[in-house]
Write a structure and sequence with these properties.
Strand content: 5-15%
Distance between the termini: 20 Å
Low-confidence stretches: 1-13, 98-106
Number of helices: 11
Structural class: alpha/beta
Helix content: 25-40%
């Protein structure tokens, strides 16, 4: 990477490794990304670029806006603390109503509008446009009709992120520049491959790894649907890792949590904290190896 590129990405001398981070999909498990961002903050390492899919795009946007990890943690814990308030916001974000189903036989009374969800749950610090972010952000969504990955890095931020997190059956597809976007996890659940041209050290944070350990039983409908998506995303990531892995792969120990366990935010973050020291050791070793003799 030449000095001009380093300067454009806001980094220092050529001897200092440029770091970029990919935050993967995984629903509530993705709250673990906050602990990883805190570890970077504690080392004084500012990512030159962030790539995010689904929940990774949601949290990545907050960090790209300039929020340190500890502030994102405080905001998330506050926003998800009260079950009644959280459920009230989800009800406000519904696309349909139960009356549509009962009286007219159409609609999905639990389907959510992703942009409304972001408006209700996102920190005020997140701007309206990519161009106002402090750090370059790459958001991965799936173009439903073209059946391919779409990477968005400019223009309005909320529609791109809402599309990235539009889990089928839960969040309605998002209209975006003549396309309809659904969950980016369908094509690229851990988008570290987008960052190799942006950095010397690429970190990937995988929260789809592993499943909940429990006695075998028939899965409930929602559990089956979301579980199948997690299995698919884990399989895609496993194949990507065989081709080329990120320089540092982080897998926080959050496999015991479900995709919709947002009300267990404190437990998820405490479980994720265990990965911070190992990440700091590995990243510090990279920096030390780059020092001139």
């Amino acid at each position: 990477m030449d000095d001009e590129t380093r300067s454009r990405l806001g980094r220092g001398a050529a001897s200092e490794p440029v770091v970029a981070i990919a935050l993967g999909s995984g629903g509530a498990r993705g709250l673990a990304h906050i602990a990883v961002l805190e570890a970077l903050d504690e080392l004084g390492v500012a990512p030159a670029a962030i790539a995010g899919t689904s929940i990774g795009a949601v949290i990545g946007a907050a960090h790209a806006a300039g929020m340190p990890g500890r502030d994102i943690r405080a905001f998330a814990l506050g926003a998800l603390r009260n079950r009644g308030e959280v459920m009230g916001k989800f009800l406000r974000a519904r696309v349909g109503r139960f009356s549509d189903l009962v009286l007219h036989g159409r609609g999905n009374p639990v389907l959510l509008d992703g942009e409304v969800c972001l408006d209700l749950f996102w920190p005020d610090a997140v701007p309206d446009f990519f161009e106002s972010l402090a750090t370059p952000l790459l958001v991965v969504a799936t173009d439903f009709f073209d059946r391919r990955e779409l990477v968005v890095s400019s223009g309005p931020l909320a529609p791109a992120v809402a599309g990235s997190m539009a889990i089928p059956g839960l969040i309605q597809p998002v209209a975006y520049e003549g396309r309809f976007l659904i969950d980016g996890g369908a094509v690229n659940p851990l988008p570290y491959d987008l960052l190799f041209d942006h950095a010397d050290v690429v970190i990937g944070v995988d929260v789809t790894f592993g499943g909940r350990r429990r006695e075998p039983r028939r899965p409930a409908p929602f559990e089956s649907m979301f579980g199948a998506a997690q299995i698919m995303q884990g399989a895609i990531t496993a194949q990507k890792l065989k081709m080329r892995a990120p320089d540092i792969l982080v897998r926080p120990g959050v496999e015991q949590f479900g995709v919709l366990d947002f009300l267990r935010a404190g437990q998820i973050l405490r479980a994720a904290d265990a990965c911070k020291d190992e990440l700091k050791r590995r990243l510090s070793a990279r920096f030390e190896a780059a020092l001139p003799d």
